[in-house]
Amino acid sequence: MAAGVAAWLPFARAAAIGWMPVANMPMPVAPSEKNKRQDELIILNVSGRRFQTWRNTLDRYPDTLLGSSEKEFFYNEESKEYFFDRDPDVFRSVLNFYRTGKLHFPRYECITSYDEELAFFGIIPEIIGDCCYEEYKDRKRENAERLMDDQEDNKDAKLPNMTFRETMWRAFENPHTSTMALVFYYVTGFFIAVSVITNVVETVPCGSSPNQKEVPCGERYTVAFFCMDTACVMIFTVEYLMRLFAAPSRYRFMRSVMSIIDVVAILPYYIGLVMTDNEDVSGAFVTLRVFRVFRIFKFSRHSQGLRILGYTLKSCASELGFLLFSLTMAIIIFATVMFYAEKGSSSSKFTSIPASFWYTIVTMTTLGYGDMVPKTIAGKIFGSICSLSGVLVIALPVPVIVSNFSRIYHQNQRADKRRAQKKARLARIRISKTGSAVQSSAFLHSKRNGLFNEALELTVRPDQRLSKSTSLLESQHHHLLHCLEKTTVSEHHHRKFCLSNLQKNHEFVDEQYYQQSYLEAGMQNYPSRSPSLSSQDGVTGTCCTRRSKKHHKPLPNTSAPAHIPPLKHTHQLGLQELSTIHIQPLSTSRSSLNMRVDEQAPLNCQSSQITTAIISIPTPPVTTPEGDAHLPAGPAHQNVVKVSAL
Amino acid sequence: MCSPSKRTQWREELQHFRKDCGFSKKVLLNCCLVRRIITLVSPNPKDSVEDELELSAVRHRPEGLEQLEAQTRFSRKELQILYRGFKNECPSGIVNEETFKEIYAQFFPQGDATTYAHFLFNAFDTDHNGSVSFEDFVMGLSILLRGTVQEKLNWAFNLYDINKDGFITKEEMLDIMKAIYDMMGKCTYPVLREEAPRQHVEVFFQKMDKNKDGVVTIDEFIDCCQNDENIMRSMHLFENVL
């Protein structure tokens, strides 16, 4: 719950009196406020800077350090204040979180130090307010990428014992690691270039024999070109197979883009070999040769810029899609308009709307070939509008793509620069560390070891207690919701419907349970109860005939909005209402949660079952107005208390 | 939302203006007309800027602590605590209906509390000026938390009587009931049927409407509630809230 709203809880509870005359059922008992202290100011001394606040302010978030009793560990008896040896600047944000309920991320702060402070004070960063969350996430991502880059650099280092396979893979991925790898890199690059040039030159018309028309070189020097092609393909095949052998995860390698390009590059040759010189398939064969141009994509292993371009296009897929979509829309509109505008003129090239598409595209991209031009005045007007709007539509998504490209490119530049500077930096650090005399270094060494041991003991913090007492605020809020449930009563059902279970009041359930129970099963009687909770099964035998409905799910203990199903048992004669109400944690998933202690109104039967996380709270039974004294012997019920520690 | 108060503000300003500068009435009317035309024609941002200025200019300071202490049944310390919480959430000193709905809705995340919050707002806004000041707030709370049972029932009746005519009709009750059931939201167990509020209203009227004339008057209401144990007990439920 937001901090400020917590202050309004008394008002909400008071306003609940508005439901009372309407309710037909008795209200649950309000949680008592034991030892209600007067609010007091407490002093938080953070590295010398004193902050003061009300104790209640801190109690708003009981699952953080300051809100729980964990802060007692930092209490300083002599000065009667809580001393924290942390950064006072970041503490400002932390304390403001308690005051206003919103956590802000100051821009000048380093992201890692901020994270550390938040972790220390037990606040999850997901509750940073919307105003600062973008910034936080961006910075975090940048930082993570930077760290990843640093880690990747470490990967370059040769591990002591690498198998031949691993060495080969490393050589393939990082050509600058060994001379052989570099040679291989350049050789493949050379052959890719040769192959591409061959494909291009193949189609150039070479000299012609006097009686024939010009033939392309490919048909004139068939054998030579075939040999070249064979050589290139052999190199590429060998390279592909070697990569396949060396890849740590062959399946993943085969799925990667680069390997697919490799395969597509060499496949046409093999298919051409296999296929006979059949007239029918020669058309298809020609098409396959087109795929040979994909060999040029193999250059992307050799050029980082190309890879960045590809990555940019992939990351800007949505902008590109938008561009395409808006262009298509505009093309269709203008083509239609031009078609109808030019319909009147004679010998118009705008024979149909699809024919006008070509004109529209050429005009919008400001190419203007001139093979189709409007002749009517209306056509010319719309044509000019078309060209103007084309410029606009194309210019819009382009800056986004450009900025993305620039960001990624600069990132890569930075990575390279950092790698280059790293050696120098490490050397400098080493010098400064070993600057002191030899004996002091030994002393520091031993001291560091001692400290390390100490730190070990301290870091084992007292584990979160299983059964945490929930805050008064939470229990009051839950009581309020409980009252609301009791107010919205369904009809009193006749007593003759003994065998069926009819609910008396509505309860809050969570989405999942609701969907499961109702949209699938309908309101049927649920047959069995799960035996996992030790229940007083035997006792039901003595009760009057009714089927009890039990729904039990295992105790959730996540910090996400956990679903807790209602566990409900009704007595037909409408005398007792037992409901274990599990109210969904009220805060959103971005804030910290605490689940409540359920209150239960048991019958006179023995009800206390205590397991590690299940506690029953006996409260006096409440009878409905029409109660005869026919109280059945205790039906089984579950008093379930779900507590969670975060 | 602000137009009635804006109009009165203009009128007041106009009156002062007239007095100060001795313009004729006609001239002023024309100015008013011109102003109206301009506001009609000009785009919304201008309006919202004026609205914002107005809202930020509204700073309501409550009456003194002693006066409030005299008027309500809260002690000084309790008033201090209440005001601190109030001011935290509404720094301008008054709550308008939107903020009220937002605050109330936070307590009932699963359902839609806005309708009920609307009725609640009207119940707290005793002078019907569209906003709840701290005095209204505290007076209401004083009745709810420290009032006699009679006063509480009176307050509840006032809440249910939407048009404040002294009678609760079935339609009014149905509206209130629907608002309450809306707060439960969709995911309940068992499923809330469409006619659940209506049935509930029938039950309510059966109980309360003694002379079966289709409306519940304040006397019938209070009588019936005083005879109902549950209701009587629940009235005392929230007494230790503050």
UniProtKB/TrEMBL annotation, chain A:
Gene3D superfamilies: 1.10.287.70, Potassium Channel Kv1.1, Chain A, Voltage-gated potassium channels. Chain C. The chain crosses the membrane at residues 180-201, 221-241, 253-275, 320-341, 353-369, 381-402. Keywords: Cell membrane, Cell projection, Ion channel, Ion transport, Membrane, Metal-binding, Phosphoprotein, Potassium, Potassium channel, Potassium transport, Signal, Transmembrane, Transmembrane helix, Transport, Voltage-gated channel, Zinc. It is a multi-pass membrane protein. GO terms for molecular function: A-type (transient outward) potassium channel activity; metal ion binding. One of its GO terms (cellular component) is neuronal cell body. Residues 40-139 form the BTB domain. It holds the Pfam family Shal-type. It comes from the Eukaryota. Residues 1-16 form the signal peptide. GO terms for biological process: action potential; potassium ion export across plasma membrane; protein homooligomerization. This is BTB domain-containing protein. It comes from Gouania willdenowi. The gene is kcnd3.
TrEMBL record, chain B:
GO terms for biological process: regulation of potassium ion transmembrane transport. SUPFAM superfamilies: EF-hand. Transmembrane segments: none annotated. It comes from the Eukaryota. Residues 112-147, 148-183, 196-231 form the EF-hand domain. It is found in: Cell membrane; Cytoplasm; Peroxisome. One of its GO terms (molecular function) is calcium ion binding. InterPro entries: EF-hand-dom_pair, EF_Hand_1_Ca_BS, EF_hand_dom, Recoverin. Keywords: Calcium, Cell membrane, Cytoplasm, Ion channel, Ion transport, Membrane, Metal-binding, Peroxisome, Phosphoprotein, Potassium, Potassium channel, Potassium transport, Repeat, Transport, Voltage-gated channel. Belongs to the recoverin family. This is Kv channel-interacting protein 4. It comes from Gouania willdenowi. The lineage of its organism: Eukaryota, Metazoa, Chordata, Craniata, Vertebrata. The gene is kcnip4a.
